[in-house]
Amino acid sequence: MTKMNWTPLRNAIGEAAHIVLLPHIYADGDALGSSGALALFLQAQGKQVTIAVEEAVQDKLSFLCTKAGIQFTLPETETPRADLAIAVDVSDYARLGSRKTLFDRAKVKARIDHHGVSGDFAPITVCNPDWAATAEGIYEFLNEIGANWTVPMAICLYTGLVTDTGCFAYSNVRPETMKAGAAMLEIAGDLSWIYRETFENKTKSCIALTAVAYAKTEYEAGGRIAYLQLEAQDYDSAGATDEDSEGFSAMLRAIQGVHVSIFVRDGKNPGQYRISLRSDEASDVSKVAAEFGGGGHARAAGITFVSDKEETFTQFKNRLITRLKEGMNV
Ligand code: 5GP
Ligand code: MN
């Protein structure tokens, strides 16, 4: 087991009065839950903490605000120059989005992360791909530092663990992940409601969009690859939002015979596409994603593609599918 060196981060925290935490763009349960648990600890140390997010928090994660008391600040709010900025669950500088300036302006820059394929952009980096979730790293750090665990901290941390492991089901789960989860249950008691909030509790628009998604799913490589592209009109027809399609990549990988799933959505700007990849042991999609300018984990990775004169989306798609087929060992 890799033991991480937390000392530089610990020292940086000791010297900072105002700390800004920066979860990745399109923040998920791990990015927000890890930031929340860390923020509560830092606040208990008398630090002034801002969690600056790129987009409004997804409805299904709003319990982090209502039940754990976490405040997330949107970019339009003026945030003073921080003594310390910590990128949380951010694999790559680009995934700070418009908050790069907040990060750059801070006196000291740090990063806590668990992505295998990642860009080194912070002078203080604690990154361990063995952690199933960044939350597992936060657990290690807070334990090492001797934090007093509270129920709101446990809610945040457990959210990170549950969401990044598919409810402790994925291959990234290790004994340490379960131990961190068990410790949170010791503190907070029954946390099954977090599973219901994040994985069940689907909106009617999500169900409508799921029907569209299954109808539009195509198969490549003799059924070993599932491909789905959803456009704005698909979301509109189901009255759905981006949040409604969050679990779709994993949903496609669950189809019998499918080893790799590709899920494509429109990006924030015209000509921009967000590609989610999921796989089983047949393929390391983080390697493939990295070749296409993206990153992530062996079984869950992503790419942001911008079409231009050099390459259309269709050309990119064909190149990606060909590459995934080549790299598959089934
Ligand atoms: P998701 O498919 O859930 O959006 O992302 C799966 C994993 O891939 C996440 O760990 C995320 O950090 C990574 N990922 C997704 N999109 C991108 C991207 O555009 N660039 C990079 N570097 N990583 C990405
Ligand atoms: Mn994560």
CATH superfamily of the largest domain: inorganic pyrophosphatase (n-terminal core)
Which CATH architecture of the largest domain is right? Answer: Alpha-Beta Complex
Largest sheet: 6 strands, parallel
- N-to-C SSE string, H for helix and E for strand: HEHEHEEHEEHHHHHEEHHEEHEEH
Shape: globular
What is the C-alpha radius of gyration, as a whole number of Å? 19 Å
Task: Please identify the oligomeric state.
Answer: single chain
Topology readout:
Blueprint: H1 7-15, E1 18-23, H2 29-44, E2 48-52, H3 63-66, E3 72-73, E4 84-88, H4 100-105, E5 108-113, E6 124-127, H5 134-144, H6 151-164, H7 175-188, H8 192-199, H9 204-216, E7 218-220, E8 225-230, H10 232-238, H11 248-253, E9 260-266, E10 272-279, H12 285-291, E11 295-296, E12 300-306, H13 313-326
Parallel strand pairs: 1-2, 1-4, 2-3, 4-5, 5-6, 8-9
Antiparallel strand pairs: 7-8, 9-10, 10-12, 11-12
Keywords, separated by commas or semicolons:
330 residues, alpha/beta, inorganic pyrophosphatase (n-terminal core), Diaminopimelate Epimerase, Chain A, domain 1, 2 domains, 6-stranded parallel sheet, 6-stranded mixed sheet, 18% strand, binds guanosine-5'-monophosphate, binds manganese (II) ion
